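Quick question: what would this complex look like in 3D?
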Amino acid sequence: MIQGVATRFERIKARPAYELVAEEIEGKILAGILRPGDPIGTESELVKQFGVNRSTVREGIRLLEQSGLVARESSRRLSVAVPHYHGLATRMSRALVLQQVTFRELFHTSRALGPGSIDQAIDNRTDEDLEALDANLARTREMRHDARAVAELDAEFHRLLDGATHNRVLLLAKEPVNILVRPTTAHIIANNPSGIPRLIEAHGHLVDALRTRDREKGRLWIDRHLRDWKAGFEISGRDLDSAVEAIIGDGRGEA
Amino acid sequence: MIQGVATRFERIKARPAYELVAEEIEGKILAGILRPGDPIGTESELVKQFGVNRSTVREGIRLLEQSGLVARESSRRLSVAVPHYHGLATRMSRALVLQQVTFRELFHTSRALGPGSIDQAIDNRTDEDLEALDANLARTREMRHDARAVAELDAEFHRLLDGATHNRVLLLAKEPVNILVRPTTAHIIANNPSGIPRLIEAHGHLVDALRTRDREKGRLWIDRHLRDWKAGFEISGRDLDSAVEAIIGDGRGEA
DNA sequence: ACCAATTTGTCCGTATGTATG
DNA sequence: TCATACATACGGACAAATTGG
């Protein structure tokens, strides 16, 4: 292919106007000119400012809406929002499911994240965190014969444990993983309720480790807990290298 | 508040039609009825199927477009896509920046993720991974007097290191963190080039740990490397509890 | 390489239900 | 209570780009 010197041009960008609209507003938000809580102008205002049609503005707003940068407040009025974990994490989890990641990958990631996050929970936990964990533990003991309830309480337990790190970055990194872990765990518990006592024992020791700020103990029990999780998966007869298929909400729900 | 028995109704949900359109298509994708690569029907087709106006269909499609479930192929034609890491991770990082997470949170998260991911890299690395790392290392040594180049090569080094885990879940969990780490590191290196020899030394030992599959050594040097990173940040005179403010691309770029 | 049909991007005008003052 | 403003949704239209012969 013979190309003259003249081909050194920037690729011309005929981007749709609705993308440009979204990008413009996004830029203002990321630059801090528009701050969380600030109202986005009305559609008519934006129409005037950008000099494009109403429909075009609306399409642009849809993009921002989905990215979480703007959200409906009380009414239908749109304002700048701080994208919330859950929606983003849900989308990431979906991406993983669509990529057919394996249980093995999920397990090793949980394993990699375990010690570090229990350390931080031990360092940063508050008395309120302990209370919540104690309450969860008590409730789990009560419901130990109800596999469904135990699964839900286990999910809550680990949410509380992660929350005790008081580290938003860590929380966000773990959340997509947790979303995949949850349904798998529920399946394991339902399939093999005989593991519930061990689960409760592990939870108890973990809370204890947080209470006494005992890192050794924390790491020990999180490791056992994860091993049990893997063992439970294997007992349920599934292949470690089978794709994780989770039932995941759409992250759009209000709650 | 006296409430009659008749108040036990579900809250009625008048969701906009464009959301319903998006949800419907999303459901088909998640259920596997529409598979990656499949073209979304043309707008006119969707208009007929859903019985709504074309503008409404288009707004719905914008939501899917931003969520990454559909993407433009070569042309403007939209087809089902597997949401790509980078775009999602970028959005997550943005969320963290908007939440004004601190360097301290970022550091402790990196610290929590470090040992586990180096372990996995050691277990799963291939000879190709080693080659790429060697090449990166050689190049870094060459460019050791150019702080900018070193910063970029350092970013690439850690990308390669993470890639060597061959664990997509771990990769996705780390990516939002890495996006925040990168500009911070660049700043540190630019501010204090005297740390470059230590950085190169650490990289060398890490590659060595991967080559010999030496976990002890890997953990040791990733720990040192992270400590140096934190020390560099402190030397640059910034507060550990100051918010991370990163220059982040919009994740919409092509390439 | 050309043409015809299709499809997307954009625009205009209008109607309707609802929230705010 | 009423009036106004606004978001949602609809219909039709046209130019430019893409597709497929």
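Answer marked as accepted. Residues 1-12, 248-255 of chain A have pLDDT under 50 and may be disordered.
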